[in-house]
Amino acid sequence: MPAPISEEQSRLDRAALLDAAERLFCERGFQALGMDEVRAASGLPLKRIYRLFAAKEDLAVAMLKRRDRRWRGSLAAHVEQVPDPRERVLAVFDWLAEWFAEPGFRGCVRVNAHGELGSSSEAVLAEVRSHKRAFHDQIAVWVHAAGAPVAEPVLLLAEGAIVTAGITGDPAPARHARAAAATLLGTP
Question: Which of helix, strand or coil describes residue 32?
Fold first, then answer.
């Protein structure tokens, strides 16, 4: 009889599985990705994978949640180091430009997940909507701190830049959206 798996080993296996799934989901999408590919990339047997996540959908939702925490945490760390409230809003677009220029950038994994699974997976749809609400709320906090009543247009500029950069493979939409946001925020 094999030895029981420790909590530490479970944590390590889960992290390795989520790392592999994130990379593969971002590179290949959700529908086209088979669990055998996830198994090969993670180095975990399928039986172990299915003990950690009963279905591919569960793995996708867990990956989206973890990515959301890291993505929004990285954005907030970048933006909140800027002291001026107006410049803080514009720093969102500077961060987006850096993200868009990363090797392998294919757009927002949540938008991609919604496109592939949003109509068939309530769990994925709920996670995508949760992320978009949280992103909206954070943008609204930064925009209101700048004293401007333009949170919705700034959010739409950010979302539009993300989708456009994902489709074109060009980071320039962040720069264009930044200029439009600066106009919306007015002269300091």
Answer: coil
